[in-house]
Design goal:
It is a single chain. Helices cover 25% and strands 0% of the residues. The chain is built from one helix and no strands.
């Protein structure tokens, strides 16, 4: 059996700042977003 991460949610006050930090750290671009949410990468990315 293989496990796969589907996503991680981090609750924070400054969404853009925290997303920018993780984007640089993980070398993942910010993908499609909604108000109060920022996604790193895209659903079909081969990396988690």
């Amino acid at each position: 059996m293989v496990n796969r991460w589907a996503g991680v949610t981090i609750d924070c006050v400054d969404v853009e700042r925290v997303a920018g930090f993780w984007s640089v750290l993980l070398d993942r671009p910010q993908g499609p977003s909604e108000p109060g949410w920022v996604y790193l990468g895209h659903r079909d990315d081969p990396q988690p």
